[in-house]
Each structure stands twice: as structure tokens, then as C-alpha cells.
Amino acid sequence: MERVIAPDGEKIVLHSTGTGPDVVVVHGGGVTIEPYRRLAAALAEHCTVHLYNRRGRADAPARREPYTLQQEIEDLGAVLTHTGAAAVVGHSSGGLIALRAALTLPIARLALYDPAVSVDGIFKADFLPAARAALRAGKTARALAIVGAAGNPQSPASRLPLAVQTAFTRLLLRHPVGREMGELLDMTLYETAEVAAHDGPPEQYAGVAAEVLFAYGQAGPPHYPRLAAALTPVLPRMRVLPVAGSGHDGINRAPARLVEPLTAFLTAA
Asked: What does the pLDDT look like over 208-217, one tens digit per residue?
């Protein structure tokens, strides 16, 4: 493993695999790089894939306070400089980081999967006060249930009474992935606030010069195809890829119907 020196002197640990063009993956909120190892392995035959834990997780340094999106962009910039990569994959809140970074960093190819980007109020953050209140009260399962229902309105579970959703979430918290989501929930809420803070017209991204592949899971939340439609007129170098049968975690499952076009996009001359 290599270590990258961030602008503030902290060390970012790189987990790299594969051969071929360098690609940096920016993971989503509420998780570490672990769910992305299947994606990295699938791309590794054709790409050199670099994963790194964003701050406050696993082997990453602690977050600086107050948290800002600019800190994330600075860390990504340091990783790009160190690796020489010009291709980035961003998922969920990692997609917001990657897209904002593409306004200022030398990113030539940008692949987004369900990016947590809000334009014209597409993403609603009105659930944040209730989720924060529950978390402050030590009711992690309730807080996570509120976040899950807001993020997945297409799910039948989101229409169940909150008490029932909370009971199911308590079971999820017994699983390692769920436990990690609970432990990182406070950071996830701060990241969600940053998504809302950067809401605005889609034209704010007109300065992105990168080739963009916008992929979304057709079985996932309905706001992602709406977001793709809103960004298409201002990003003429963007192609939209609906992924059949995939939800928000489709990128972690790395199905061939996503990996094959993603590989072709990342390795194109």
C-alpha cells in the first residue's frame, strides 16, 4: 500500500490493484472502501484501480472540523496527482465530490453511479432534523430508518410505519455492513447537508470538460434519472447508462451489464 500526502500533511492510504490506465474510485457515504473491492477486481484486468478511504473511516485520517466538501476535493486532488490518474469513478456522495472536483481538477473521464447531486431541489433534505434528533437521543436504528426511507422512496418498506422500519433496521444493525452504516451515520448526515448546500441550477456544472458516463440503477431511487435528464443539456459530453435490475448499491455488486460499459468508457483512447 502506498501513502499519499494530503495538502494538510495527513496521509491517505491507497489500496491499488490491476494493470492498465489509472482509475480512482471515490466511495459513497456510510461505508468504507470494502464494498467496492468487487468492482475493483472486476475492473482490474483492464485498469489500475485505486481505492482510498475517505476521512474518518478505517485507515483514513480523522476529518477536519468543520466538515466541508472542499476538503474531500483536496484529498482527491492529492490522489490524482500521486497516481497520475485522469479517470474517476464516483458513487453516491462520492459522485458529488467527483463532479465538483471535475470543475477544477484535471479529470478527463468521469464515471458517476447514482451521484448524490442536487439540482433544482431534486434531493430533499427535510428529513435531516428528525434523523439528527434521533441520533442525538441514541436511537441509531430510528435515525437510520428515517435516512433509508428518504433515500429510497421507491421501496415498499419506505411506506411502512416508522416503528416497523425501525424494527427492521435494528436487525440490519446486527450485520457488519449495517453496523458500519450506523457507526458512520453522523458523518453521513453531514455529507447529506453538503448535498443540500450545493443545490442549485444544473448550469453550475457547465464548466465540467470531462467525458462523463452517468449510470443509474433502474431499480433504485427515482431522482437519479431525473438528475441525468437535468444535467444532459449542460453536459454535452455526457452519456447516460440505465442499469437494469440494479439499485443504489448496484455498483458494489458489479454486474457485467455495468462493468463492461464502464470498462470501455474508462479505457477509451
From this structure: 999 999 999 9
